[in-house]
Please model this.
Amino acid sequence: MRIRRALAVAAVAAALSTGVSASPAAAAQSNPSPGEVSAAAWYKTTSLGGPIRKCYAATCDQVIWADAGRTMEWSHNAYNASGNRWYYVHYVDGNGTPYDFYGWIYCGNVTAPC
Model:
């Protein structure tokens, strides 16, 4: 499991450092599962309201809706084929029982720099 996690993190870092832009389908397949998410650092941001998606394109399936004013964390960002910046986020939601959600949110839907 550690090797798989290290490989996933290395693949994302390599893609981001080389400026490679993956297709939405490839991005969805390359995301680590929530139990395997590892990041060098998570940064706080606030949602302005919007969908968290399975990959970094508006056509990707929605994971959950992030309510405006809610705090979330992001670990890295990517640009899609249209040149739009997206953040990979960790969002906690739940009514009495917290659930962790991971996915991509468009930079215009958070207070982090766009």
